[in-house]
Structures are given as structure tokens and as C-alpha cells.
Known about the structure:
Elements: H1 3-19, E1 28-29, E2 32-33, E3 40-43, H2 52-58, E4 64-68, E5 71-73, E6 77-79, E7 85-89, E8 93-96, E9 106-110, E10 115-118, E11 120-123, E12 133-137, E13 142-145, E14 148-150, E15 154-158, E16 161-169, E17 172-174, E18 186-188, E19 191-197, E20 200-202, E21 210-212, E22 216-220, E23 223-225, E24 236-238, E25 243-247, E26 250-253, E27 261-265, E28 276-280, E29 283-286, E30 293-297, E31 304-307, E32 310-312, E33 316-319, E34 323-325, E35 328-330, E36 335-337, E37 342-345, E38 360-361, E39 364-365, E40 370-373, E41 377-380
Parallel strand pairs: 3-4, 4-7, 5-8, 6-9, 7-10, 8-11, 9-12, 10-13, 11-14, 12-15, 13-16, 14-17, 15-18, 16-19, 17-20, 18-21, 19-22, 20-23, 21-24, 22-25, 23-26, 24-27, 25-28, 26-29, 27-30, 28-31, 29-32, 30-33, 31-34, 32-35
Antiparallel strand pairs: 1-2, 36-37, 38-39, 40-41
Amino acid sequence: MTRENLRLARIALMLIPLLGCAGDGTVIADGKQAAASQRVLRVGPGQKYSKPSQAAWSARNGDVIEIAAAVYERDAAVWIQNNLTIRGVGGRAHLRANGANAEDKAIWVIKGNSTTIENIEFSGASVGDHNGAGIRQEGTGLTVRNCYFHDNEEGILTGENRASEILIEHSEFARNGYGDGYTHNLYIGEVKRFTLRYSYVHHAVIGHNVKTRARENYILYNRIMDEETGNSSYAIDFSNGGIAYVIGNLLQQGPNTDNYTLVSFGAEGLNNPANELYLVNNTLVNDYPEGGVFVFVKPEAGPVKIVNNLFVGQAKLLEGQGELAYNLVSEGAELRDRARLEYRLKTKSRAIDAGANPGIATGFDLVPRFEYVHPAEKQKRPESGALDLGGYEYQANP
């Protein structure tokens, strides 16, 4: 080392206590490590990567992948990196598979952990086993926001991972399912926690609109329906019980349903350490002309608390055991326009101010705080007197 280099090295050593230095060489000022610059990979016409699968090969942990709003035909990918954010920009990017798939599983197979996906549309997934998904989740932790899954053999399909937490919000699922009864709009496997909120889930093809085996489930402020033409099975199926909070939803079974039960809890066996159902302030509508069951609960589940709900149509309220309080069964006179799926309350409805504070269950506040706004949005639930029954608080001019 020359004398000059030695002198510069000594100066650098003297400065370290003043500036600080992180182990990765990042300079620290005032004792705080400067955030490393986050890589952004851009996908689309005129960009370095013309399609998402190319970015999947080049991505590193922590990258942001921005996909321009365009249609990407027959492109599928496996994402193995952790802490990725993958989002459409300038609108939704549309992955139109037309049968293309990754690993004979899905349009996107997510193997990395802590992935966030935003503003992406998935359609046309099909595979040899007839369960081709828009997303097959195999890593730990997934957030899906403002996405649209339609006309796939499966919308989202997750594997068994008891450490994983799945959050889906402000998203739409439509017409997913192969038609065999084993494929669904949403199929969540044995994970730690599943949250579905502010979303529009409808017209599953023969299968369930929502099927989950999670230990904890938070189904909050969604619109889950067959509408006039759908032929889905259950609106919500908690296949193996678990802890389930179902609050502030609009749930409807159409005239062509493949199953006469709206909400099923534990039909395939209570396989979780705790099996508790809290069905609070939902509007449940049965348009199946031959009756049916609003809620099925497997024997030995509990506690089961069914409070402040508005049940509309001809069906048995509960098959199984549970606490029923402050619910109303109606033929539709309480709703503004049942035929047009307008489930807000009429003036002078018996549901107005007919509810009670549902309290807290295992540390979770059961009081409804929001309302679903179509499509796939939310608003704060008004507070006026006692709680009204169902998913909406009465307003003269909402």
C-alpha cells in the first residue's frame, strides 16, 4: 500500500465513528441505516421485459415488478423469490392464459414467501387435472389486492401451510370452476389465517364460491352470490371448521344453485383445535324455490353465535346447534328491491334498530364497522341508534 493510500485509509477509519457503516457497506447517518434502493423491473411493450415470465426469471428477493396494463397472451410463470411486489400499472394487466400454464398447475405458481399481487387479471387457466388456477400459492404469505380472476378452472388455490396467512381484498372472482364440484372460485387449504374482505365473489361453476380449510377465517364485508344465473354450491364452506368470523356480508343463493345450503361449517369433519363460528350482521338471501338451509353446523362445534342477521327467503335458519339472537326471517319486505339484488333496508323495515351489540369473541370485536360497496369497495358503516340487522345500516338517502 502506498503512503497516500495508507493516509486515505486512516482518514476513513477516523470517519467511521462519525458516519457509521452497515455490514453491507451502506453508509449510516445519525445512527440510522439508509434504505437500500429497491429494484423495479418493468414489463410491457417497449420495456426490457416484454412479458411477466421474463421478469420472473430475472427477479431477486425484494423486487417490485411493474406490469403495464396490456393483454399478455399464453404467458405463465413460476415466482420463487421472497418479498416480491407484483403489480399492474396504468390499469390492470391481463394474463390471458388460453391454456398456457406453469408446472401444469396455474398461470402463476407462487413459491416465494410474502408476496403481494395488485391490479392483475387472470383468465383461461386450464391443466390436465382440471384444476388450473389463476394463482397456485405454495409459499408462506400472500396478499392479493384489486385483482380479477375469471373463467379459470380454479380462481386461487393454496396448498397446506400452517404458517401461511392469506389476505384477499378489493378483488373479484367470477365463473371459476371446471364444473365437477371439486373446483371453486376460491379454495384455501390448511393455512394459519385467511382473510377475505371488500370483495365480489360470484357465479362459481358448480363448486363453492368460497371454500376454506384455514384455522382462522375472517370473511368481512363481501358480496358472495349466485345472482340470477349462477349454479354454485355453498356460498361459504368452512370444510373443517376452525375459527370463523363472518361479519357484514351479503350472501345469496340463486334459483339454480347446485346445493341448498348457503353457509356450511365443518361438513368434512372438525379437524382444527378450535371450531367456533360467529355469524354477525349479514344479509342472507335464499332464492332457491325449493327451500334449503341458511346455515349448517356440524355437531360438536362451538361456540356458535348467530346474531343480528337478516334472513330472507324460504329456508331453515339453522341445521345444528348454536346461539340465535336478534335475527329476523323475512320474505323480502325489508329490502329495497330483492329482485334487483338491492339489499339495503326499506323505510320502516322491522330490521331497523332491532339489533344488539354482539360483543367480543376470542379478542375479536364482532361489531360491524364497514359496509360493502359494489363493486369490491367499502365504506364506514353509519352509527345511528341501535344496530340494524343485516349488512347495511338504514339510510334514507345512501
